[in-house]
Amino acid sequence: MRKAVLMLLAVMVATMFAATPEGRRAFRQFEQRAENGDAEAQYRLATVLETGWDSVPVDSVRALELMQRSARNGFPPAMNYLGYLYGKGYKVGDRKLIPVDRDSSVMWLRRSADAGDPRAVSNLAYLLLKRHGYDDDHIVLITCLL
User: Fold this and answer.
1) CA–CA distance, 41 with 75 (Å, rounded to integer)
2) How many helices and strands, by DSSP H and E, does the chain display?
3) 66 closest CA partner among 24, 36, 88, 95
4) From CA 12, how far away is CA 23, in angstroms rounded?
5) What's the pTM value of the predicted model, to 2 decimals?
6) Bridge partners (DSSP) listed for residue 56
7) Element (H, E) at 90
8) What pLDDT, on the 0 to 100 scale, is given for residue 67?
9) Spatial distance between the Cα atoms of 110 and 122, rounded to a whole number of angstroms
10) pLDDT tens digit string along 93-117?
């Protein structure tokens, strides 16, 4: 838990001050951790690049590549998010980066759920109930009863 808090703090500091030489240096160090295979750093960097932050521009293609690497490296939140992306598809402009693929969505959500991510359990339940014809109102009722 402490490592995760420190990692998040490092991202926040690096991105808040990315316009300063110290901020750029801290951000490059964070990018290096991601490039060296740190799955959590890959995930966090992907989330920054997906929306952009301060002077860090949006880079959807790189964000997706990092998210996929993080998921393949076994980071549960990345697996959950990748399952979500396969469930709805992911486009940037006219370019389809991930097509809707229910089987891949279920696979990534299951992996994340098996690794203990409670959000993945909820997302998987939603997807499977939706697949069996339940509408959103019934799904909300069912999940509230659980």
Assistant:
1) 10
2) 8, 2
3) 36
4) 10
5) 0.76
6) 53
7) strand 90-92
8) 97
9) 11
10) 889 999 999 899 999 999 999 999 9
Residue 38's pLDDT is: 96
pLDDT of amino acid 52: 85
Look at residue 25 in the predicted model and tell me its pLDDT: 82
Burial of 54 (0-12, 13-18, 19+ CB in 10 A): middle
User: What is the identity of the amino acid at 58?
Assistant: V
Torsion, Cα 66 70 73 79, to 10 degrees, reads -130
Q: Which two tokens stand for residue 123?
A: 């997302």
Q: 64, 33 in Cβ contact below 8 A? A: no
Phi-psi region of 116 (alpha: psi -120 to 50; beta: other; left: phi over 0): left
Query: Cα separation of 93 and 72, whole Å?
Result: 26
Where does residue 129 rank: exposed (0-12), middle (13-18), buried (19+ CB within 10 A)?
middle
The reported pLDDT for the residue numbered 133 is: 75
* 119 three-state secondary structure: helix
Q: Is pLDDT at 18 greater than 80 in this prediction? A: no
Measured CA to CA, the distance from residue 112 to residue 106 in angstroms comes to 10
Sign of the C-alpha dihedral computed for residues 51, 8, 19 and 65 taken in this order:
negative
Reported as a single tens digit per residue, the pLDDT across 49-81 is 998 877 788 999 999 999 999 999 999 999 999
